[in-house]
Amino acid sequence: NLLQLGLEADRRVEHMARRFYGALFWDMMHSQAPELLDLIGITLEDSAPRSIRRSDLTGRPALNVHSVRMSQRRGNRGQPEFEYVVELVQTRAGYLDPEVQAAADRGEEVANRDFSMRAGVTLLIDARSYQIRRVIRSRGAIHSDAVLKMQRAFRKGERRVNRTAFADQPDPKLGNVFAALHRHDERGRDEWPE
């Protein structure tokens, strides 16, 4: 049980426990309602674009349980609360030519991909009740053609990149450089489609 493993745990045992929990969550995700999967931005439908990496086991879109770990935090009354942190990732082959992308989405044989698009979600799950406490999604689902189009435009140099505190000098009016990380575009809204 990941709950019972502490800092003094044998690393090999902890690694095996995480692999076990990864397989468990992979299986659980495959038995979820499509509405929940759509809400968290994951697709396992056979009708999804064929450019999404497929599982050798199921032939359906592959789901990588990237990480399962335990987290402890303080509750609102100071009590310790434990939760599972589960990271799920899917990958889609991207092509700079939209016609080649359409052919790959239909499942036709095409040249090697030009880039990989990744999308996923982090789930914070209460360790006692197994209820999902938080869903932290990447912007845009893996099957979103709008997000794929934005990635293609960025890679072709056609899309303007917003300034950030890491890439540019921060605006002196912001006062705090970290505020620049959360800045929206000039129209006052985020550019990414949901």
Give a description of the structure.
This protein has 194 residues and is an alpha+beta fold. It has four helices and four strands, in the order H-H-E-E-H-E-E-H. It has a four-stranded antiparallel sheet. The longest helix has 20 residues, at 11-30.
User: What shape does the CA trace take?
Assistant: elongated
- Count, helices: 4
Radius of gyration using CA atoms only: 20 Å
Low-confidence stretches: 184-194
Helix/strand/pairing class, anyone? Answer: alpha+beta
Q: Give, in spatial order, the strands making up the sheet with the most strands.
A: 1-2-3-4
Total DSSP E strands: 4
Distance between the termini: 36 Å
Residue share in β-strands: 15-25%
Order of helices and strands: HHEEHEEH
Q: Look at the structure and give the mean pLDDT.
A: 79
Helicity level: 10-25%
What's the quaternary structure here? single chain
Largest sheet: 4 strands, antiparallel
Break the fold down into its secondary structure elements and pairings.
Blueprint: H1 11-30, H2 34-39, E1 64-74, E2 80-94, H3 98-106, E3 115-126, E4 132-137, H4 145-155
Antiparallel strand pairs: 1-2, 2-3, 3-4
Quick summary:
By secondary structure, this protein is of the alpha+beta class.
Summarize this structure as a short list of keywords or feature phrases:
194 residues; alpha+beta; elongated; disordered C terminus
